[in-house]
Hints:
Elements: H1 2-28, E1 32-35, H2 45-52, E2 59-62, H3 68-75, E3 80-83, H4 108-124, E4 128-131, H5 133-141, E5 146-147, H6 150-153, E6 169-174, H7 179-184, E7 188-192, E8 198-199, E9 206-212, E10 217-222, E11 231-234, H8 249-262
Parallel strand pairs: 1-2, 1-3, 3-4, 4-11
Antiparallel strand pairs: 5-8, 6-7, 6-9, 9-10, 10-11
Helix pairs in contact: 4-5
Amino acid sequence: MKNQVISITLLGLFLLLFQGCETQVDETLPVKIAFSKGSPEASYANYYNWIRSVDSTVICQDMYSMPMDSALILFKGCSGLLLTGGTDIHPGLYGKAYDTVRCWPIDDYLDLLEMTLIDSALAWGMPILGICRGHQMINVALGGSLIVDIPSDFNNSEIHQCDDHNSCFHTVAIDTGSLLCEISGTESGEANSNHHQGVDQIASQLKAGAFSADGLTEAEEWENPSGKSFLLGVQWHPERLGLDNPLSGPIAVRFLEECRRFK
């Protein structure tokens, strides 16, 4: 009996020490973030630079440059998912399969990859940030739909895309009770704009957190965030804005905080 008590005590001490060491190791490891697409175009480096400008130790893992099975294995070791911009999402994924003609180049592999990554991230409680196409994909993955072509199908009082995307900006009105307002600390801001598609019917689990002057959804988040992991989608490109812009730097900072907390 005495030996049994000693054994149990030693086992308890071992577990405490092991847990303490495990926590210490996790805190010293850099955060690894999965980018749904980070190559091959040079413009994708903007996402890496944006995140690393807040924390230079972050490991940026491109999911697109490898087969699906390899991507999912590496994804398990990540602490956050950043869904980047890019080509149009196949309209068949949101009930408009008849309307592929007005879509720009469609990447079926990227569609499947992002849908799979979103499902896994939500199941694990991993933080998700969606930018431009990524914002749209979050809505589609959760059952919402998209406007196939804004110039043809939507009120054109606001310019959402220019030949020179570096000179295309508009004001964004932010809901005072939204997660985005909490993060940015403002109720309005200047956002860049480079998209011909946008959120049409928002998914039932989501709500709009910001709008452009013509009523287009510019940000989305959980309708009821209680018990759910961090999720934010923005239609603009914060990685192309200065960190001092409330619609850029604070978003990167908060996303990284959530990733560290998950890790």
